[in-house]
């Protein structure tokens, strides 16, 4: 009888843990960037700063980079554009622990499959902060960005449950790195 209970318990644990493990493997091995925090303001002269989190957990910062490659209207960047952008970044000295990076990158697939609220005008001259996550397509060699949240002159946000967690996490990272 004890052996039967053990087997039932073991099978139950497997049923609940195996599907959860698959969610952590949404990132391609060739994917270089996972997240981006980007502030842009053209109202008082060009201002841009932010950070990118790469696949190793490095937090790479930029400040008013020249010839920055912005995603197109569908949030797509080519591998070359991403490489060019990364060359304009510097290492902040902050590195996200592997477990933490795995946890938050595991949310990307869910966020990418969710809808975004309609944009709302909130004012002028505030600029725009965008929280973005990326998925890489090996077949096309492109990065598809997904807007997690936008703040500033215009606001909107992803409706996925994990969006608020990722936004709060990225805001903590932003507050913990040096700013020029």
Task: Describe this entry's structure for a reader.
The chain has 180 residues and is an alpha+beta fold. The chain has one domain. It has helices spanning 2-22, 79-87, 98-105, 108-112, 163-176; strands at 33-41, 47-54, 58-63, 76-78, 90-95, 120-121, 128-137, 142-152, 154-157. Strands 1, 2, 3, 4, 5, 6, 7, 8 and 9 form a 9-stranded antiparallel β-sheet that branches. A hairpin with a 4-residue loop joins strand 7 (128-137) and strand 8 (142-152). It is globular, with a radius of gyration of 19 Å. The N and C termini lie far apart (67 Å). The model is unreliable at 1-26 (pLDDT under 50).
Number of strands: 9
Mean pLDDT across the residues is 86
The share of residues in helices is: 25-40%
Shape: globular
Structural class: alpha+beta
**What percentage of the residues does DSSP assign to strands (E)?**
25-35%
Which H/E pattern describes the elements?
HEEEEHEHHEEEEH
Tally the helices: what do you get? Answer: 5
- As for the number of domains, it is 1
Unreliable segments of 5+ consecutive residues? 1-26
**N→C terminal distance:** 67 Å
Q: What Rg is obtained from the alpha carbons, in whole angstroms? A: 19 Å
Largest sheet: 9 strands, antiparallel
In short:
The protein is an alpha+beta fold. The chain has helices at residues 2-22, 79-87, 98-105, 108-112, 163-176, and strands at residues 33-41, 47-54, 58-63, 76-78, 90-95, 120-121, 128-137, 142-152, 154-157.
Topology:
Blueprint: H1 2-22, E1 33-41, E2 47-54, E3 58-63, E4 76-78, H2 79-87, E5 90-95, H3 98-105, H4 108-112, E6 120-121, E7 128-137, E8 142-152, E9 154-157, H5 163-176
């Amino acid at each position: 009888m004890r052996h039967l209970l053990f087997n039932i318990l073991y099978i139950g644990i497997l049923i609940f843990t195996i599907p959860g493990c698959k969610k952590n493997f949404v990132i391609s091995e060739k994917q270089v960037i996972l997240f981006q925090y980007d502030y842009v303001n053209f109202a008082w002269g060009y201002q841009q700063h932010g950070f990118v989190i790469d696949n190793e957990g490095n937090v790479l910062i930029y400040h008013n980079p020249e010839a920055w490659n912005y995603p197109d209207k569908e949030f797509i960047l080519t591998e070359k554009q991403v490489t060019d952008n990364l060359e304009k970044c510097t290492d902040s000295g902050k590195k996200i622990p592997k477990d933490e990076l795995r946890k938050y990158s595991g949310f990307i697939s869910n966020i990418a499959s969710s809808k975004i609220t309609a944009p709302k005008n909130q004012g002028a001259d505030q600029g725009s902060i965008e929280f973005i996550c990326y998925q890489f397509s090996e077949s096309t060699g492109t990065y598809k960005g997904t807007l997690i949240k936008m703040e500033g002159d215009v606001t909107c946000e992803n409706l996925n449950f994990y969006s608020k967690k990722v936004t709060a996490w990225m805001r903590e990272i932003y507050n913990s790195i040096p700013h020029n």
